Amino acid sequence: MTQDEPKVTFNRVMLKISGEALMGDLGYGLHPPTVERIAREVQSVHELGVEICMVIGGGNIFRGLQGSAQGMERTTADYMGMLATVMNALAMQSALEGLGIHTRVISAITMNEVAEPYIRRRAVRHLEKKRVCIFAAGTGNPYFTTDTAATLRANEMSCEAIFKGTKVDGVYDKDPNKFDDAVRYTTVSYDDVLAKRLGVMDASAIALARDNNLPIIVFSLDEPGGFRGILAGQGTYTRVQG
Known about the structure:
The protein has 8 helices and 9 strands. It is of the alpha/beta class and 242 residues long. It has a single domain (12-241), classed as Carbamate kinase, CATH 3.40.1160.10. It has a 9-stranded mixed β-sheet with strand order 4-3-5-2-1-6-8-9-7, with helices on both faces. Helix 1 (32-46) links the parallel strand 1 (12-17) and strand 2 (51-56). Helix 1 crosses helix 3 and helix 5 runs parallel beside helix 7. The chain is globular, with a radius of gyration of 17 Å.
């Protein structure tokens, strides 16, 4: 690390982003310039020597809950949603490797031709070799969200925090896009997130983070340099902790 580089507060982190984050201004699918912009954010943190895990949702392609609501059998709809996350993971892998970052897509559903199967010790070794690990296909089980998958993998990989990239710069007491008097929390407890239904992550993900004392840092993915800045102790964000 050079003298100009900031001192980072974490050595290994989980970055969780929604599939919608990859859409850019499109209403559906992937927007390659947006994927590349997020990849550059990851690159800026990777250059600090931080080991990075990623989980990307699939909502820009298919949402299991929406499919289920439209009459599709829930288990089938959820598996389709898992496959959507694999597509997003491959897109992000392509963007990261275009920047010269060694990346592995690790899938909870076996598909050897495009991704490695999830083997915990192998994944840890990739991280130790400074490869970015993108965990795809959720937990491999229906009825669990990618938020829960991110929290599960973060615990298994011994991550020190989950970084939840959203469209707003933290957690508010009400929707800041609808209410001008919405107040942003600097820190908020896991129990308050659950009791007040603040919508950081789904309840099972919050409970899993709480039970393992894993902090969740909610920040804006749209703010250039935000991911790197927060790792250096700067920027605007909300920290969810015990």
